[in-house]
Amino acid sequence: MPEDSRLKRAGVTGFNKPKATPKHPTKSHVVVAKVGNQVKTIRFGQQGVKGSPDGSARNKAFKDRHASNIAKGKMSAAYWANKVKW
């Protein structure tokens, strides 16, 4: 199977492998998400913002605020932000 052009354009090594994008003006990470035959490039995370340790008030607030979007799975930006940054 030939390599998907979206992987090269996003600069990632494979599907569902997030990568930091320090030079992007607004988003801190990119991932080319793949579930079945569906493929989508997702940019997520606010540039310059760090997550918080598990159990902190900020961490809990993020997870509570975005719970419905995180539950949508790998095709949502909230899922990846939760997994990578929080």
Q: What would you say this structure looks like, in words?
A:
The mean pLDDT is 94. The protein has helices at 5-10, 57-65, 67-70, 77-84, and strands at 19-20, 27-35, 38-46. It is 31% helix and 23% strand. It has 86 residues and is an alpha+beta fold. The protein is globular, with a radius of gyration of 14 Å.
The main sheet orders its strands as 1-2-3
> What is the strand content?
15-25%
In whole angstroms, how far apart are the ends? 34 Å
Order of helices and strands: HEEEHHH
Topology at a glance:
Blueprint: H1 5-10, E1 19-20, E2 27-35, E3 38-46, H2 57-65, H3 67-70, H4 77-84
Antiparallel strand pairs: 1-2, 2-3
Which features would summarize this protein structure in a list?
single chain; alpha+beta; 3-stranded antiparallel beta sheet; 31% helix; 86 residues; 23% strand
Short description:
This protein is α+β, with helices and mostly antiparallel strands and 86 residues long. 31% of the residues lie in helices and 23% in strands. A hairpin with a 2-residue loop joins strand 2 (27-35) and strand 3.
